[in-house]
Structures are given as C-alpha cells and as structure tokens.
C-alpha cells in the first residue's frame, strides 16, 4: 500500500474527504484541522492500495491541491488492519500490475537530470568500459554496465513520448546528448594518456577478444535492446526495481561508448564506427520497447492529456 498526505486549503477539505470516501481502495483516513503551516490549511492522510492511487491522485488534482497545497506519496512496507485488507480487495486490478503515473513521471524526471552526479557516473562507467576493452575483461565490462546511469533518461524519453510530456523528453534528451559525448571525451583523453605512457598500444585491439561482442552489431543487438527496454519499463512501472540490474547488464550502451573512444585513439576506425552503431541501436531499441510497453499500460487518457510541467533544475 501507499501512504498519502495531502495539504489542502480549509475550503477544499470537505471535497477532498468526499473524494477519498468515493474511491475504492482507501483506508485509514485522518484529518488534522489547521495542522499545515506552509502552505496554511488542513492535512489529510490516508493509506491507499497501489492500484487505486492513480484515481485518487486524479481526484486530488481536480481540487488543484498540486497548486494550492501539496500531495506526497510513500510506500508502506506493512499495513496491519482489516480496513487495509478490505481496501486492497475493493481496489480494481492487481497491485503488481498497477501504474502510478505521477510517481513514474516524478521518478523518471529526477533520473533524467543532467547534473554532476549523473555525469560522474556516466564518465566512470565509460572509463571502466575502456579498461575492460584494453584488458579484454568481460567482468570489467559488466561492471561498467551496472554503473552506467543511462537507463533513467531513456525511460524518461519513453514516458514523455507516451504521456506527451515534452518537457520530460527535452530534459532527458539534453542529458543524453551532453552526457555521452562528454563522457567519451574524457575517456578519449584517458586513453591518449595511457597510450603515451606505454600502458597499452594498438595491439591490444588486434585479433579476437572476449569483449568483441561490444562492436559486433547484428539482429541480436536490436533484439536484446528491445527485451531490455521492455523489462526495464515493466520494472519501473511495477516497482520491481531489482529487475533493473538485469537490464543494465544486458545492454551495451556504455561499453560501446567506451570502446568507440579507445578504438578512435588507437586508430581502429572500423571498430570505432561499429561501436557507435552499437550504441545507437541500443539507445533506439530501449526507447522503442519502453514506449510500446507504456502505450499498452496507459489507462488514463485524462492524465496523459493534462501534462504538468516539471520543476526547473
């Protein structure tokens, strides 16, 4: 279940309570008159079944609480009461299949920000991939896959396209368009330094290696990207975040970026171009699959038609 807290002006409190009473899947409603200080008003709290959350939030949006007050949601690990059990039984659908759209928008919006942390993780992941390439270490490549934060912006693009949240698409596109080139530029500099100091040479890329799968583009590259994008979006929309680790390990976005940088410095242009192609195929495949999954899961046309701009930053 989810715990809801709504700050609302006193004149809207009765309407909010009525909306909560009318929604199936709501339990433990609490009213605190005059408890809100900033903004001033009343505080209404309730526990709601996950599958009822989207309808509840829509009702609160109708009361404009997102503008005149505030709405917060947090996950409840345990709720022990007959009322909570009844609420989950009355709520339509299954909890594991429920999508809380505003939660999804908020999550992907936060993960798609171009900031120092995002750029640092992406750069470190590319550097790890470069080390994996020159040492022919699949384990290091897997480490780079796990560290890479690129799925957040890719998921944000898919969410933005399906829900017509163009502000979200722009933010995510900027993060990817700036993040990858900058991370590859740093990796290129590190590779040049390594070659100049004799740490490795062009011979490291000649012949066959265990990490050659990175630049070998083929039908399976697209198939894996599509499956990974679908699994990743299912994990995000069903709150099964543990599955995301498997998504990170299955795609070769960051490894392809790292390989391209190393190959360019060492003059292996065919492998460099193939790696860039691998990167493009993976990015497009993930977004396409995520869009298809979301398109199937969209249930509320009203939400999709009423975008709320993301905060700046």
UniProtKB/TrEMBL annotation:
This is DUF389 domain-containing protein. It comes from the Bacteria. Pfam families: DUF389. The keyword Transmembrane applies. The chain crosses the membrane at residues 116-135, 141-163, 172-193, 213-235, 242-267, 279-298. Keywords: Membrane, Transmembrane, Transmembrane helix. The lineage of its organism: Bacteria, Bacillati, Actinomycetota, Actinomycetes, Pseudonocardiales. It comes from Prauserella flavalba.
């Amino acid at each position: 279940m989810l715990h809801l807290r709504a700050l609302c002006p006193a004149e809207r409190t009765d309407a909010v309570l009525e909306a909560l009473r009318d929604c199936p899947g709501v339990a433990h409603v609490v009213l605190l008159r005059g408890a809100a200080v900033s903004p001033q008003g009343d505080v209404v709290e309730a526990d709601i079944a996950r599958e009822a959350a989207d309808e509840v939030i829509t009702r609160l949006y109708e009361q404009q609480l997102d503008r005149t007050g505030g709405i917060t949601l947090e996950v409840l690990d345990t709720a022990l009461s007959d009322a909570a059990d009844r609420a989950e039984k009355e709520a339509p659908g299954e909890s594991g299949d429920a999508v809380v759209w505003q939660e999804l928008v908020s999550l992907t919006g936060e993960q798609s920000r171009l900031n120092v942390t995002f750029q640092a993780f992406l750069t470190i992941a590319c550097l790890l991939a470069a080390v994996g390439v020159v040492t022919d270490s699949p384990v290091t490549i897997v480490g780079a896959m796990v560290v890479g934060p690129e799925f957040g912006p890719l998921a944000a693009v898919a969410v933005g396209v399906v829900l017509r949240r163009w502000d979200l698409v722009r933010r995510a596109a900027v993060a990817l368009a700036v993040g990858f080139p900058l991370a590859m530029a740093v990796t290129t500099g590190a590779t040049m330094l390594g070659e100049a100091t004799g740490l490795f040479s062009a011979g490291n890329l000649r012949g066959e290696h265990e990490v050659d799968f990175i630049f070998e583009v083929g039908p399976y590259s697209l198939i894996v990207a599509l499956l990974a994008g679908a699994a990743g979006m299912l994990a995000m929309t069903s709150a099964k975040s543990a599955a995301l680790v498997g998504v990170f390990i299955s795609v070769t976005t960051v490894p392809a970026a790292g390989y391209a940088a190393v190959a360019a410095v060492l003059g292996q242009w065919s492998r460099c171009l193939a790696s860039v192609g691998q990167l493009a195929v993976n990015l497009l495949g993930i977004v396409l699959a995520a869009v298809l999954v979301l398109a199937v899961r969209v249930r509320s046309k009203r939400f999709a038609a009423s975008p709320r701009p993301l905060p700046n930053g």
